[in-house]
């Protein structure tokens, strides 16, 4: 490898994707991650849905469709189990379909009988739903590990338990990182890619306070509950979204259900968060036939995480205004990771040229 010496900070789904894209583009990549394994930050609490069907008013679905195409070509994004999505009122479901249809030609409207056939686990299939057969979901921790493995196969070095204490500045440009942890030292580089998720703002603030101020956070909760038979696809109704996970429940291997939620106001209180998780498990029992529903008495677990939320969606500007540095921050970050990584790799190559 003779490309630019590039340090990637953070092995969440975004940093791991950047390391992979950079290594494939010929950069000499060293990825440094504070935790003992990749994908342990926000990515570990993510619902991981690769979707176009659920979006906000300001979301650019054309861009998101391009991001999904990039994800399909990256390691760890293969799932296509399909999603069944519906709103309370049929007119709202029709409006959702009208937004989706130009960007997802495979999506179609289904009535109750077909919804029941597609998702036999539902106690009360919706009168009208959107079925998006190409949508899928990943386990982002697993995806981060696969991306890091692919980056290593392309020559990247991955250092775990290597927390960055600060960015190294020399003559007005970022020249590397200062590592703490078991092997404290300075690592020099031609370019640093900052992909530290919720920690990026703290590392960036001393050098680029304005860019750091644009890196917001938004809390969200993933509830995991041991299930019975695996759900057939991703289900998203007006009350909750749910999918099967093969990752077990942290207690025993086997099928479990995950559901992503807005946190309750008292989420900082562990007892309140546990009670919230139990209420969501109850809601799943109302939604699903017994063989698929959360097992009675099995504990529901809630993971509260801070989602990196750039002020400019879906990405923060790659150029934070400091030479030698590229910022890699996006929301929704799983969907956009490979697309953003390709842009990061192009920028690093351009800068080096
Ligand atoms: C409940 C929930 C549901 C979600 N659902 C979806 C969804 O369906 N689809 C979707 O696309 N997105 C979803 N998201 C958002 C998505 O998970 C995030 O956008 C994405 O995981 C962010 O990835 P990241 O790599 O930027 O951050 P992280 O995963 O947090 O990775 C940052 C990494 O940097 C490391 N790090 C931090 N500080 C340092 C340091 N000083 N030195 C070295 N390493 C450091 C951390 O240990 C971590 O591994 C969801 C999030 C949540 C919480």
Automatic annotation (TrEMBL):
Work out whether the entry's keyword set contains Lyase: no
Q: Does the keyword Oxidoreductase apply?
A: yes
Which Gene3D superfamilies does the UniProt entry name for this protein?
D-Amino Acid Oxidase, subunit A, domain 2, FAD/NAD(P)-binding domain
Q: Please give the Gene Ontology molecular function terms for this protein.
A: oxidoreductase activity
Protein name per its UniProtKB record: Glycine/D-amino acid oxidase
Entries under PROSITE patterns matching the protein: PROKAR_LIPOPROTEIN
Native source species:
Albimonas pacifica
The record's keywords, sorted A to Z, are: Oxidoreductase
Q: Which SUPFAM superfamilies match?
A: FAD/NAD(P)-binding domain (SSF51905)
Where in this chain does the record put each FAD dependent oxidoreductase domain?
A: 6-346
| Cellular component, GO, one term | cytoplasm
């Amino acid at each position: 490898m003779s490309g630019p010496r590039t340090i990637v900070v953070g092995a969440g789904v975004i940093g791991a994707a950047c390391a992979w894209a950079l290594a494939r583009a010929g950069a000499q990549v060293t990825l440094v991650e504070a935790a003992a394994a990749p994908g342990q930050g926000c990515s570990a609490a993510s619902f991981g849905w690769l979707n176009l069907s659920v979006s906000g008013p300001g979301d650019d679905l054309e861009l998101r469709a391009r991001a999904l195409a990039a994800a399909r070509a990256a390691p760890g994004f293969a799932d296509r189990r399909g999603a069944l999505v519906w709103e309370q009122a049929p007119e709202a479901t029709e409006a959702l379909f009208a937004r989706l249809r130009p960007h997802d030609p495979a999506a179609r409207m289904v009535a109750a009988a077909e919804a029941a056939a597609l998702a036999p686990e539902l106690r009360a299939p919706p009168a009208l739903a959107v079925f998006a057969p190409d949508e899928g979901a990943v386990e982002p921790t697993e995806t981060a590990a696969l991306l890091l493995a692919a980056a290593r196969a392309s020559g990247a070095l991955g250092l775990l338990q290597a927390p960055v204490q600060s960015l190294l500045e020399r003559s007005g440009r970022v020249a590397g990182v200062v590592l703490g942890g078991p092997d404290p030292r300075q690592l020099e580089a031609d370019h640093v890619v900052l992909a530290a998720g919720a920690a990026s703002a703290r590392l960036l603030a001393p050098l680029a306070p304005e860019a750091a101020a644009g890196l917001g956070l938004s809390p969200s909760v993933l509830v995991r509950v041991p299930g019975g038979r695996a759900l057939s696809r991703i289900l998203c109704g007006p009350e909750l979204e749910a999918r099967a996970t093969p990752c077990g429940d942290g207690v025993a291997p086997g099928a479990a259900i995950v559901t992503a939620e807005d946190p309750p106001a008292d989420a900082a209180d562990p007892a309140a968060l546990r009670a919230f998780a139990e209420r969501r498990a109850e809601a799943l029992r109302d939604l699903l036939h017994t063989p698929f529903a959360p097992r009675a008495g099995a504990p529901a677990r809630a993971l509260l995480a801070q989602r990196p939320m750039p002020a400019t969606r879906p990405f923060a500007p790659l150029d934070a205004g400091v030479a030698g540095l590229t910022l890699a921050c996006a929301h929704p970050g799983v969907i956009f990771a490979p697309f953003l990584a390709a842009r990061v790799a192009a920028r690093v190559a351009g800068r080096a040229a």
